[in-house]
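Recall the central idea of this unit: under ordinary conditions, the amino acid sequence of a chain determines the structure it adopts. In this exercise we apply that idea directly, starting from the sequence alone.
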Amino acid sequence: MESRQRRREKLIVTLIVLAIVAMFAFFLKDIMVPFIRMQMAHDVDGATKLLQEKGLQGFLSVALIEALQMVVIFIPAEFIQISSGLSYPFPLALILCDLGVGLGATIIFALVRLFHVKSTAYERTRKNIDRISANTRDRNAVFLLYLLFFMPLIPFGAICYYGSGSKLKYRKYILTVMTGAIPSIIVSNLMGAAGTAFLKNALPLWLLVLIIVALAALLFVLIWFFIKRFVFKGTEETPDSPVYALTLALARIWQGKPRHLTIDEKLIHDVQPPYILLSNHESFSDFNYISRLSYPRNPSYLVNELYCTRPILKHLAKGGGFVSKRLFTPDMHSAMGILRMIRRGYPVVIFPEGRLSPDGRSNPIVEGASFYRKLKVDLVLVRITGAYFSKPKWRKRKYRTNVNLKVERVIKKEELEAMSDLEVEEAIRESLYTDANETLIDTYPQKDKAEGLDGLLYRCPDCGNLYSTKGRGNTFFCTKCGARHKLNDRYLFEDDGKTSSIADFYDAIKALEAPELDTFELRTKVKTKIYGENGGPIHWEDGECTLNCREFGYHSSKEDFRIPMDDLPALAYSCNEEFELYHNNELHYFYPVENRQQVCRWALLVDMLAERRQRNKGETE
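Accordingly, the structure predicted from this sequence is:
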């Protein structure tokens, strides 16, 4: 029965398409060929005169030529839109062009859905769309179509071929296409009308440009209002919102793609939301890689509160349903945010290390097993490898590298409930731990691999001298003892037939610091940048930081506080720049006045003290 109905639908569509083709071939045969020739020759004046002379046939030709150019794809639609704007009053030109878009979109929909036709022209432009549309589905497919209509160099026809290949129903598809094309049509029509005024010297060039830019901005705002008000109504402040899709698209454009991303996600295919997804944290682009998994439903992300409270970013974070977290600070707000998303049925992505890896090995995992078990959802564990050397913490420049992403384990909620907190923590550590040198999947021929490395390896592993190390080109050296070490294409130091990794040198520095772990006293003058609570004002002040095995201290003309070392699990930092922490719900960035190479030492000593506390805790349990 279904196959008979399917054949009937195909027959009807075939007859309609044949009728349109006959109209092209017979009724408008004296318009179509001349017009296309004029288009290829960029003869706008000739095309305009042709349309004006043909009367009703000229009206029909605008719609049919617009449709033809969409189906063929590689013929730009702007020519007919500008010509119609020159030939007819603006409202009529807009209606004719949009009807043509609807007709072309309908033909493409039928060709793709019923006849499974593939366009070679579309396949050639598809990579540009795929770069933007990875993992877009359901409601966000509508938003993506609107977004694509504002993208340069992507033909309307290619957008329609993409939309027809999605799961959108025809009514939503055609409404999206015909409204999404309006801004471009209006701008092109007005360019034609304004161009006429400009050619007649009735309009100065600067005013012509200003009008076009202003109209494009206004139309973008109107379309954005339309899709928020009618298409995405009820999705505010969730991962189904257009703000979420826009944020994700902008992040992907900004961060770019790796050279090659390999995803092994078969274990996640049978997992139903909501669930918690945990991943290791090798690079700042991990968010980008994780977003490319095939989620059954768009996930929310737990992100640094700083990105959720600053101008513009705070609106994107709130509108997109992102959950904020204060780094290494007890925070009930983040726990409630995660719970809220879980209750609404969304997965939540968390990077439990809470910071980037300094030396390529995973940081200690922030304990959270008890919280995950109380949520009573599945736990998905994902490991990223190959991302660390793309842009390590200590280097400013980024390289495109091969990256692997694998779903290592799924712990079902029933299994999770039966496990102890210690068993859950061990499962997380085992699944997420990585060592960049042991999981190397690429080679690195660049000539500046050691640039900035002195921000991490602040102490010479050969002579033990502080702050005498430098990284230049591929060479790491000490200005005190003259020791030199060169990185090869696998980020290994080669010395006298012996190889060492950056992590090996980092361990050597830890060994030099260990004897002084109970006696060190650090003190430095700082310029302090303080971010006000909940997006409050930013202000600067001069102060002094101190650190010993008992506490971290800060003193300025406005503040004086101490944080016991037991309450400081880690000290976040940026190499050769600053270290940071929260106090009274305000984020403090401390920039040493002298010798910023020392910030890594402050963070490493805090890490070593935390590791010792953890070992002592394990021995007593």
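Residues 254 and 288 are 10 Å apart (CA to CA).
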